[in-house]
Amino acid sequence: MKIVVIGGTGLIGSKTVAILRQRGHAVIAASPKSGVNTITGEGVKEAVAGAQVVIDLANSPSFEDKAVLEFFETSGRNLLAAEEAAGVRHHVALSIVGIDRSDNGYFRAKVAQEKLIRTSGIPYTIIRSTQFLEFLRGIADSSMDGNSVRLPPVLFQPIAADDVAANVADVALAAPRNGIVEIAGPERAPFNDVVARYLKAVGDPREVVRDPEAPYWGGRVEERSLVPLGEARLGRIGLDEWLRR
Ligand SMILES: NC(=O)c1ccc[n+]([C@@H]2O[C@H](COP(=O)([O-])OP(=O)(O)OC[C@H]3O[C@@H](n4cnc5c(N)ncnc54)[C@H](OP(=O)(O)O)[C@@H]3O)[C@@H](O)[C@H]2O)c1
Questions:
Q1: CA–CA distance from 37 to each of 14, 31, 92, 111, 204 (Å)?
Q2: pLDDT at residue number 116
Q3: Which atom of ligand 1 has the smallest separation from the CA of 132?
Q4: What is the model's pLDDT at position 148?
Q5: Separation between Cα atoms, residue 18 and residue 16, nearest integer Å
Q6: Which atom of ligand 1 lies at the shortest distance from residue 93's CA?
Q7: How many CA atoms lie within 13 A of 81 on its CB side?
């Protein structure tokens, strides 16, 4: 089966491409580096021609509120229009657990991306994932207050990129759900504790301060804002195992 992975050179994209190729599919790893740009439209029509499945794993180069919203709206519109013209039978996209339960610029952009998919008329599956373990350092960096990291003790259930990619590949090869599938890591613990454990393990001396009022990415979060509320597929790799690898 011909499968196009938009963002096929990224963290999740490159792992997903490898899994699908191993299973014998003809996979195009599409990204600006390979001449496929969903913002300018360059190479998109040619890439999706004859594809049964398109997996959107692109990410915005800028996380600034306006830029990220513009990225996911423009990219989504261009890609879905090309898929409709090509008769693509399954659009898969990677979103985030809780984007409609907390407010920040990045989450608003993912809500806009999901809406375009739901109203496109193309059969789809949206995978909502919790934060990647690979993103823990970025979270610590973005939660700095002076010399320490300030985080709320809300529930947190990060997942390894390898587990995310395995789930994305499985979903892409199954029938479209025309709905949402949620995925999360195998362990649930307070956000500040997980980040403190990670920083200690990698020898980062920054102290993590537990602050119930601390925002996440600028938005207020409550106990269950960032974890699946219902059924979710769980990854196998916890923090300790991930650190060992
Ligand atoms: N971080 C998290 O914790 C988290 C949690 C849940 C969901 N997600 C979602 O997971 C998805 C993948 O994230 P990631 O961390 O794997 O991303 P990433 O490593 O930053 O990779 C981004 C990919 O997007 C491509 N790209 C950038 N601009 C593009 C354009 N104009 N047209 C086509 N492709 C473009 C890049 O191509 P080049 O290499 O050519 O630049 C790269 O392949 C994102 O949609 C994100 O919202 C993230």
A1: 16, 6, 18, 21, 37
A2: 98
A3: 3
A4: 96
A5: 5
A6: 45
A7: 10
